[in-house]
Amino acid sequence: LQDATPMTLGQEFSGYAKQIEYGIARVEATLPRVLELAQGGTAVGTGINAKVGFAEEFVAQVAAETGHPFVTAPNKFEALAAHDAMVEISGALNVLAVSLMKIANDIRLLGSGPRSGLGELSLPANEPGSSIMPGKVNPTQCEAMTMVAAQVIGNHMTVTVAGTHGHLELNVFKPVMIYNVLQSIKLLGDASHAFTDNCVVGIEANEDRINQLLNESLMLVTALNPHIGYDNAAKIAKKAHAEGTTLKAAALALGLLTEEQFAQWVVPAEMIRPRA
After folding, report:
1. Distance separating alpha carbons of residues 125 and 111, to the nearest angstrom
2. Strands (E) located in 93-197
3. Fewer CB within 10 Å, N side or C side of the chain?
4. CATH 1.20.200.10 occupies which residues in the chain?
């Protein structure tokens, strides 16, 4: 929560959007292996007592009834002795939960206040008021999302441990793996819809507060590095902080640049992209 160089809300939220995009892609990338079925391998993968063609006919029927492109596992020994595909999809869900935890926490911090926090965002007042503080607005949707993320992260640990118990030719931990993976999918899906509908679509930028914090930030001094050097820029920041003055006042007092140079070089809108 220290001062840093400026960025736009659009840049901040573009990072969130890309996290979700990658999260969806990661989950989708696991599906080809999740769709491989072991039926037809019988006891240990040899296919003993199964008729030739049973595996293919079975998976065709499952695919027809579910509408999903299930296929017969090319190696029944792997499919029975290990459930790596379940660990993989749980891992992808875990990454998504980590992303959602970060996003929800960021929005909660940016919406903190209204007077003693960051207050850059105004969050929807879904449940205004607390048990003792009238009018207080808690970031309940952010809190709900972080709790869901914590549960999914815990579920993944269970799935991971279960995946290690494929002893010899059979892993008997599939029930607990299935339970946790399905719960993670449902929790993430429901929480994402609720978070979107009850929080994200109602978020508003508090432009006055953003401008206040922007103009008070000592790290705008970073724009001076190419012109007067890091050490001199640091002197300005330290003087301004110690004396409670503006960066410009500190720079002029130190005689390191003119007022015109400060106005020309310290332009926040030009600090949000690489230099030309």
Report:
1. 11
2. 121-122, 166-167, 170-171
3. C
4. 9-28+81-124+133-207
Domain limits, CATH 1.10.40.30, in the chain:
217-270
Q: Which residue type does 134 have?
A: P
CATH superfamily, domain 217-270, is Fumarase/aspartase (C-terminal domain) (1.10.40.30)
pLDDT tens across the length of the chain (276 residues): 888 999 999 999 999 999 999 999 999 999 999 999 999 999 999 999 999 999 999 999 999 999 999 999 999 999 999 999 999 999 999 999 999 999 999 999 999 988 889 999 999 988 777 778 887 888 999 999 999 999 999 999 999 999 999 899 889 999 999 999 999 999 999 999 999 999 999 999 999 999 999 999 999 999 999 999 999 999 999 999 999 999 999 999 999 999 999 999 999 999 999 987
Q: How many CA atoms lie within 13 A of 122 on its CB side?
A: 8
**Which distant-in-sequence residues (6+ apart) come within 8 Å of 49 by Cβ?**
42
Q: Which residues, 6+ apart, have CB-to-CB distance to 145 below 8 Å?
A: 100, 101, 103, 104, 191, 195
Task: Indicate the pTM of the whole model.
Answer: 0.91
Contacts of 184 (CB under 8 A, 6+ apart): 90, 93, 97, 151, 152, 155, 156
Domain 9-28+81-124+133-207 sits in which CATH superfamily?
Fumarase/aspartase (Central domain) (1.20.200.10)
